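Narrative of accomplishments. A recurring question from our advisory board has been how the design workflow behaves on a single, concrete structure rather than in aggregate. To address it, we present the structure tokens for one chain from the evaluation set, followed by the sequence designed for it. No filtering or post-editing was applied between the two.
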């Protein structure tokens, strides 16, 4: 029924009822569960009717009749899929069940409050309607799940009073708000209402009772504290927020005698049954922190209470690891934010600090606590991003940072991360006069597989920036880095087998991903892509040319540089991909290019052909040659 829906035909519904009665003779718990579910939650038979046809979304000038309101406030069970760690679904597993109401929360809240507003304070019939709705919800959960310590209705509600923690609302909140508004209005007419609700025994009713005691102007501060202590509610975790509210309104202004009793009870600590705490890791520390947290609250709400301050200081001295919570009156708190994305310091401020005190600035950066993922606080990757930005905007400071990192060998993986971040920043930078120094630093990272992508990206971006530049020692050094990087790590880079063969994927499958070390190697050969290739046919063109290089078929214009020969011969190209049945058309591009510093021209001829063979003509100032 959880999968197919809670709807049954008449005959099937009657048969299910008889089966549930027979089941209860064999298994009382299972029979109770089925009978309660069938009696209250089958659409078209026992579930509450949808009220939108006779209950307007917005209340009219006149409140609804209590009979209609009672129908809208009637709860029922909804079967849900039981959550599992592995996501599997066992069809024999008992479904979970939650309590629902068949009216939208916002509409139900407005109608309930409208009726309370129009009714005399303490109206017994209205009070019974509201109490019955919440009591029925608890009874349904007990009937289905049996007695258990978990109270989902109470857990969802952070505070009885309106609170930002309860902004995600459920229909049960309409009932709770109604009881709160009814109780606040009924206090003068029914001063014993807190005692009545407390006696019901359900957590939400007891929290409502505590809420009324905190607001009750007829009770003195001492009486409120006594009311709390008489019911041993001081350390009841399910009642915590409302208990702390009573302390907030009464602790500072209560008599010395009442405060002495309160402080003694607080220092005695929680007295939980063993079966409640045996599953809690380090029960002693748990109970000590509960006392510490209560003392923190008492000193906050009664700052002039010297004895409470002394007790807190003693508890702190005995437990140095304890720290106050931001919200001591809550055991859970929900906030929103983002993980990371915040620099430890603004870029300009960090640069200024580096210029004034380089060593101290690096120490401060490394001293940051990046172990906990705090919302809206910087993470370690944010610190690395800041370092990359510094190296990009000021490559000379990147060199200075590198030296400072080398002076801290004890930093281990953090030092390696910082070096890679500096290389990433240099990749985007105009290196200028320190290019040789930077390339020398990058050379030290070639052996590290973890640094291969950063080094490959550095080569790619720097070659792109220097397409039209003359040959320099830095470019020559980068060619050597590219060759060494490819030999060491080229085998580590692959592409997805699902890649589109008509895309650039076949080329990148040979030469690596965009940020792989092989891409920098390719760009060094192709001078940053002066020949613009489109589609698989062009990829085959480049592949065929490189295959010719690999086989040693060179024209007179091809450089005789030993590094070129070593690069091409070391690169083993795969076999030609399968032929495509469709024709490919690609355009003519004739652009000057520099192949490792030697000016040549490459012309890709316009072709329309179903054959994978393409023509490539290479010419130079000294002669002509071609390969097919």
């Amino acid at each position: 029924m959880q999968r197919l829906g809670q709807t049954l035909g008449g005959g099937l519904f009657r048969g299910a009822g008889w089966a549930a009665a027979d089941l209860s003779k064999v298994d009382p718990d299972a029979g109770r569960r089925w009978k309660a579910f069938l009696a209250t939650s089958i659409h078209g038979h026992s579930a509450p009717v949808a009220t939108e046809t006779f209950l307007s979304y917005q209340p009219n000038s006149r409140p609804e009749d209590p009979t209609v309101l009672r129908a809208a406030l009637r709860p029922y069970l909804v079967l849900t899929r039981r959550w599992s760690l592995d996501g599997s679904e066992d069809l024999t597993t008992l479904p979970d069940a939650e309590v629902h109401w068949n009216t939208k929360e916002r509409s139900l809240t407005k109608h309930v409050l409208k009726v309370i507003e129009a009714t005399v304070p303490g109206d017994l019939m209205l009070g019974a309607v509201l109490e019955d709705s919440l009591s029925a919800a608890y009874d349904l959960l007990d009937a289905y799940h049996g007695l258990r310590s978990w109270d989902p209705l109470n857990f969802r509600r952070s505070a009885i009073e309106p609170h930002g923690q309860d902004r995600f609302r459920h229909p049960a909140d309409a009932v709770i708000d109604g009881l709160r508004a009814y109780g606040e209005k009924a206090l003068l007419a029914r001063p014993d209402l807190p005692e009545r609700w407390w006696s019901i025994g359900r957590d939400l009713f007891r929290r409502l009772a505590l809420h009324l005691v905190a607001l009750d102007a007829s009770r003195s501060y001492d009486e409120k504290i006594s009311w709390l202590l008489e019911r041993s509610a001081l350390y009841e975790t399910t009642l915590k927020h409302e208990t702390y509210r009573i302390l907030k309104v009464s602790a500072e202004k209560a008599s010395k005698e009442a405060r002495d009793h309160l402080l003694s009870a607080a220092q005695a600590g929680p007295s939980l049954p063993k079966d409640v705490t045996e599953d809690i890791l380090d029960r002693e520390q748990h109970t000590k922190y509960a006392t510490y947290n209560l003392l923190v609250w008492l000193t906050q709400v009664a700052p002039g209470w010297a004895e409470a301050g002394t007790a807190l200081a003693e508890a702190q001295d005995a437990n140095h690891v304890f720290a106050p919570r931001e919200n001591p009156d809550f055991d859970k708190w929900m906030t929103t934010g983002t993980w990371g994305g915040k620099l430890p310091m603004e870029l300009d401020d960090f640069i200024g600090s580096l210029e004034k005190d380089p060593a101290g600035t690096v120490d401060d950066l490394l001293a940051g606590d990046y172990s906990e993922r705090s919302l809206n606080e910087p993470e370690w990757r944010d610190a690395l991003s800041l370092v990359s930005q510094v190296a990009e905007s000021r490559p000379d400071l990147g060199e200075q940072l590198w030296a400072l990192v080398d002076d801290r060998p004890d930093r281990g993986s953090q030092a390696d991360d910082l070096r890679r971040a500096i290389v990433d920043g240099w990749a985007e930078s105009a290196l200028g006069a320190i290019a040789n120094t930077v390339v020398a630093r990058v050379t030290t990272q070639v052996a590290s597989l973890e640094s291969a992508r950063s080094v490959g990206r550095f080569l790619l971006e720097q070659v792109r920036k220097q397409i039209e530049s003359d040959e320099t020692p830095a470019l020559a050094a980068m060619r050597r880095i590219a060759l060494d990087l490819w030999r060491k790590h080229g085998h580590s880079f692959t592409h997805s087998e699902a890649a589109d063969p008509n895309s650039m994927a076949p080329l990148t499958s040979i030469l690596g991903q965009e940020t792989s070390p092989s891409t920098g190697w390719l760009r060094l050969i192709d001078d940053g892509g002066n020949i613009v290739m489109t589609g698989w046919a062009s990829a085959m063109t480049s592949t065929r040319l490189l295959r010719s290089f690999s086989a040693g078929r060179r024209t007179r214009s091809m450089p005789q540089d030993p590094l070129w020969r070593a690069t091409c011969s070391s690169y083993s190209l795969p076999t030609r991909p399968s032929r495509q049945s469709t024709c490919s058309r690609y355009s003519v591009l004739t652009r000057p290019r520099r192949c490792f510093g030697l000016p040549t021209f490459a012309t890709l001829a316009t072709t329309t052909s179903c054959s994978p063979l393409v023509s490539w003509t290479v010419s130079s100032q000294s002669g002509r040659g071609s390969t097919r």
